[in-house]
Design goal:
alpha+beta, Alpha-Beta Plaits, seven-stranded mixed beta sheet, 10 helices, 11 strands, IspE, kinase, transferase, GHMP_kinase_N_dom, EC 2.7.1.148
């Protein structure tokens, strides 16, 4: 049996660091939305062994999150896993878009579906958080406020339809390095409290978009400031670095405006550009 699964990318519309745990993980509050752009994972159970391939050969190792998720699911379910996995990677790697985490979530959901749901949603969530802080969000598959290290997911109902342009400059950024260089003294409680006021309740996007990590990423990669200015000049209502970056996204009034902006930005040869919309869940 074969199953094709879409693994959406995401953007962080709001991200505030709230503290650091004894184990080194940072606690945060973030608003994330899955996107209409992402990767595609194919699982084929007509196989005598577990194998994994990817259109980007450098990602096809045993340490890929798809393989790790598959093995974790097999241990938890008690089902010996024999399947072929093929990942069509469509989004940049180490880009702040959650690609690896989304691929892992797609693997968990796909395997569970193909084997008649041996694990409950709670059991899948427990597996997800061990694979990565963003994986529980992708299991939920809808706009959400996430807290803790990201594993506490509260879905947001009636989230507005948003249109985006993503621009990635073509180099990876290490999430671990960005978090390590973040100074907790920069955290501002008043900014964090803004999370209770969602933009569809009358607040402008320019005032809502916020990312504590942006300060570090811009310092490490100052050229991203020029990309932000280019996105704003293309008509975005607001723009922000997603997660630890380096992908920058702009929020646009509608699909036509986003597509026009994407074409304009492609002509500037600043990097990988994609127009997309947010998924409601």
């Amino acid at each position: 049996m074969k199953l094709d699964i879409f693994a959406p990318a995401k953007v962080n519309l709001f991200l505030s660091i709230t503290g650091k745990r004894a184990d080194g993980y940072h606690e945060l509050v973030t608003v994330m939305q899955p996107l209409s752009i992402g990767d595609n994972l194919t699982i084929d159970t007509d196989s005598k062994e577990l194998s994994f391939a990817c259109n980007q050969k450098e990602l096809a190792g045993e340490d890929n999150l798809v393989v790790r998720a598959a093995r974790a699911w097999s241990r938890a379910s008690g089902i010996k896993l024999t399947a072929r996995f093929y990942l069509q990677k469509n989004t940049p790697v180490a880009a702040g878009l959650g690609g690896g985490s989304s691929d892992a979530a797609a693997c968990l959901v796909g395997l569970n579906s193909l084997h008649n749901m041996p694990l409950s949603s709670q059991e899948l969530a427990a597996l997800a958080v061990k694979l990565g802080a963003d994986v529980p969000f992708f299991l939920a598959g809808a706009p959400a406020i996430c807290s803790g290290i990201g594993e506490k997911v509260s879905l947001l109902a009636d989230f507005p339809e948003l249109h985006y342009v993503l621009l990635n400059p073509g180099y990876p950024v290490s999430t671990q390095v960005i978090y390590k260089k973040y100074d907790l003294s920069w955290t501002k409680p008043k900014i964090r409290n803004r999370i209770g006021l969602s933009p569809h309740k009358g607040q402008s996007w320019a005032n809502f978009l916020f990312n504590d990590l942006e300060r570090v990423t811009l310092k490490e990669h100052p050229g991203l400031a020029d990309i932000k200015q280019a996105i704003l000049a293309s008509g975005a209502r607001g723009c922000l670095i997603s997660g630890s970056g380096p992908t920058v996204f702009g929020v646009y009034p509608g699909k036509e405006e986003a597509c026009r902006a994407a074409n304009r930005l492609r002509e500037m040869n600043l990097g990988w550009v994609a127009a997309c919309k947010g998924l409601p869940g």
